[in-house]
Amino acid sequence: MTRGIPALGAYAALSAGFDVYAGERVQQYSPMTLAAVSFGLVTAVFLGWDLVVRGPSEVLRPVRARRADVLALNATTAVGWLTMLYALVRLEPAVVNVVGLAVGPVLTVLLEPVLRRRARPLRTEVVVSVAITVVLAVLVWGSLAGRSAVGGLGTGDAVIGLALTLVSGVASTGNLIFSKRLSDAGFGPRAVMSVRFPVTLVTAWAVVLLSGRSGELGPALPSAAVLAVLGVGLPLYLIQVGLRHTEPITASLFSALSPPLAFLLQLTDARLSVAPLTLVCVVAITLLIGVGVLARHRHEQRARPREHDPGVIPHHPPPIPDPDPNPNPEGARPL
After folding, report:
1. What stretch of H or E contains 253?
2. Chain centroid to CA 20: how far?
């Protein structure tokens, strides 16, 4: 697990920065315009790189071998990212960040035993997930009551924003699990990144072109390029690396460490004010996440063979005897 934590930590930090930056950018450009350009750039880099290095046949191997998982990964990527961008139009970044990520541990506990039958969450992880749900409910109430950083919201905007955020959280949870399934099947981060964006790309570009927003593409290019590198490509690559060494529940818990960073970063946005309730909920969820990650780490430590413990005799298979220890005693060349 310690090999995956650095990648997950970097992913959490970049996710916080993405939410704050995207929350400010979607006030100027359509979320679909930003998605069309940023995901187009990411797809061009990863798919182009993989085509040159491995060739078309190898790039399509995940599709041939695990078609259902690749389709599910595409669908959850599109739903998760597009709904999050629209939620940022209505809610403060820290709320979108914490709601979208905090529902992940709860849903992972429920879905992972079904989608990955070998995996079982720990009792502590279940308790942490339930506690996160309670704090999440308080945060939702605060947003509806006008106690978030954006101040008073209309009931309609708050409900729509929260609904979009919850949908994004559900999709992101499925995304983690299907990413892990592909990783378990032997496909590395680059192979997964090459085939995960087509549905998102087609959806975003279709909406932009059909809605007559193509004029936004040029002005939105610099902002979308920043989102492509720091908000989409690098974070998703890091989460795939992290999933090679951790369980989805650990990735889901650890990824939710980004809300405290989002809360701090959003203070640079003049639209937003300090919201004490948001801060208290973010800190509570962060502490709960730490408990869950620590429990998983201790569980993995206990599960490892204690070969360095002098009180434990390691099991090694007996050596296979040589049936003829001196097959050529005269040193003559075999016939």
Report:
1. helix 248-255
2. 17
